[in-house]
Design brief:
Blueprint: E1 6-7, E2 20-21, E3 32-37, H1 41-45, H2 47-58, E4 64-69, H3 75-83, E5 88-93, E6 99-104, E7 107-112, H4 117-124, E8 131-134, H5 155-162, H6 170-183, E9 190-193, H7 200-213, H8 217-226, E10 232-235, H9 243-251, E11 254-255, E12 260-262, E13 267-271, E14 287-289, H10 293-317, H11 322-326, H12 329-343, H13 355-367, H14 375-379, H15 382-389, H16 391-399, H17 405-420, H18 436-442, H19 447-454, H20 457-460, H21 467-481, H22 486-490
Parallel strand pairs: 1-11, 2-6, 3-4, 3-8, 4-7, 5-12, 8-9, 13-14
Antiparallel strand pairs: 5-6, 10-13
The structure holds D-mannonic acid (CS2).
D-mannonic acid binds at residues 196, 235-237, 304, 307, 378, 385.
Length: 492
């Protein structure tokens, strides 16, 4: 089918071809009930999608979303969205090759914090705002992985403590906005984390209250007692948008400068704790539970860790996407072996979920050939991801005398990856990690360097001293640095 594509904006909505779904509510009636920090692809494919669907089903238009960009680089998405009247499209690709296109209309605006910090604080403090939600990535929570404590040594934290009216980090904004709300007698908003961190709400609470407590004990107690921080498990695989995706959307009839592509699967399990109301997300498939812990642990330690396993090993081998990596039988058996023999034995049972089926579904989702999820994305910020996704499994296996061989190989491969920043054939890899320099300077092939790598205690805690893990790890490092192909080590 060849159609003349139209520019995505409000005016185009009424004349879209019928195969493109559009918002089923009156956008002119939208109010902004949610302020969201970190408008990446994942937010747009997940929380914004659920909210858009909810407003379409219920006709309740109080839950528009205002995006917030904290980093200068976010002005790119702000500019695109602004030009498109804050509309964007979601291209959902199933494994059979069918793609459905839908326009998401729930965004009402976008503010850049660096351009006008007070406008961001005012938006969060507005009476309409009921929820401030976050996708700021694992590293954005600013905790020291091995201790879980707030990292006051971060230069931006020091800046924010000195400049509460123009902070750089999210905690400065939350603190100032909550203070402003409290002063004007408004109920506090809920702070809702949508990142892949175990107990993401509890972690957010701890980080925010530690930050505030360092200068105002009384306010920290008030936040702790009055603000809700629901824990949640979030899930939808959302690759980085490519030029091919933009072309595919255009071929379907829409000129969208920054569409989002994702898989059909989506899941959101949330604790029922909100300070000032919430959208009826259960009407669009979210699940509300008392305690989300088992769901979060399962997802982080199987899906996210599974991604890391495939991402690091696949990168060394020279693959570039997850589907390509998992299509190779050695890699798919290995990731399944990691899940079965290392991740699952230290997981608690999850009510209503058959873990075998869950793992089968994960491998099938990874294999979706139309979701070209790049290993560069998967391996980005591995220092934070590995601390969160993989290290807890290793530590628990060491404590319980379980197996750690697969994880040891992944960490050895990560040492190689961090040092050479290349495949085993010598092709350069793009490494995106705030800690890339320190990782590279510590990693290396010699025994002492390899030990120093797992001696990075902020990431690994005491694991370097645990021979059940350190011995196989050191052997794997030596084999990899001696040129043994990663694939050969995976079948041993
Ligand atoms: C991925 C996640 O970034 C990663 O390492 O594992 O982005 C993953 O795709 C999502 O959590 C899926 O829900």
């Amino acid at each position: 089918m060849s159609v003349q594509p139209v520019n995505l904006n409000n005016a185009a909505l009424s004349s879209l071809p019928p195969h493109i779904l559009r918002p089923a509510y009156d956008r002119a009636a939208l109010r902004t009930g949610i302020v969201h920090v970190g408008v990446g692809g994942f937010h747009r494919a997940h929380q914004a999608f659920y909210t858009d669907q909810f407003m379409g089903k219920s006709g309740n238009t109080n839950w528009g979303i205002c995006g917030i960009g904290l980093r200068e680089g976010d002005s790119k998405i702000r500019d695109v969205l602004k030009k498109q009247d804050y509309l964007y499209s979601l291209l959902v690709k199933d494994p059979e090759g069918c793609a459905s296109l839908q326009v998401i209309g729930c965004m009402t605006g976008f503010l850049m914090a660096n351009e006008n910090p007070q406008a961001v604080i005012d938006k969060m403090a507005s009476p309409d705002t009921k929820i401030v939600s976050l996708t700021i990535t694992e590293g954005g929570y600013n905790f020291i992985p091995s201790t879980g404590e707030f990292d006051f040594s971060h230069a931006d934290v020091q800046h924010d403590l000195a400049n509460p009216d123009s902070p750089r980090l999210v905690f400065g904004y939350l603190a100032s906005a909550l203070k402003q709300r409290r002063a004007s007698g408004l109920a506090p908003f809920t702070v809702q984390s949508c990142d892949n961190i175990q107990h993401n709400g509890d972690v957010t609470r701890k980080m925010l209250t530690s930050y505030i407590r360092s200068y105002d004990e009384e306010m920290a107690d008030w936040v702790s007692e009055n603000v809700a921080f629901p824990n949640a498990m979030v899930d939808r695989i959302t690759p980085v948008t490519t030029a091919d995706d933009i072309a595919q959307v255009a071929a379907l009839g829409l000129i969208d400068e920054w569409p989002v592509t994702c898989e059909p699967f989506h899941q959101w399990v949330i604790e029922e704790r909100f300070s000032d109301g919430r959208p009826g997300w259960e009407k669009t498939g979210a699940q509300f539970v008392e305690d989300v812990t088992p769901y979060e642990t399962m997802k982080i330690r199987l899906l996210n860790a599974g991604h890391t396993v495939l991402g690091i090993l696949g990168s060394l081998h020279g693959f570039s996407t997850i589907d390509e990596t998992v299509a190779h039988p050695v890699f798919s058996s290995f990731v399944r072996r990691f899940m079965d023999t290392e991740a699952t034995p230290v997981l608690s049972p999850v009510a209503g979920i058959n873990l075998d089926e869950y793992k089968n579904t994960l491998i099938a989702r990874f294999a979706n050939p139309f979701i070209k999820d790049s290993l560069t994305r998967i391996c980005s910020q591995s220092a934070s991801k590995i601390s969160t996704f993989l290290v807890p499994t290793i530590k628990e296996n060491v404590e319980q005398k379980g197996q750690t061989e697969c994880a040891a190989l992944v960490i050895a491969a990560w040492c190689y990856y961090s040092y050479y920043r290349a495949t085993q054939q010598g092709t350069a890899l793009e490494v995106i990690d705030d800690h890339a320099e320190i990782l590279q300077s510590v990693a290396g092939g010699s025994e002492s360097q390899a030990r120093a790598f797992i001696g990075l205690s902020d990431i690994f805690g005491n694991l370097a001293k645990e021979s059940a893990f350190a011995d196989p790890y050191l052997q794997y490092v030596s084999s990899l640095f001696n040129g043994e192909p990663v694939q050969a080590l995976m079948t041993n």
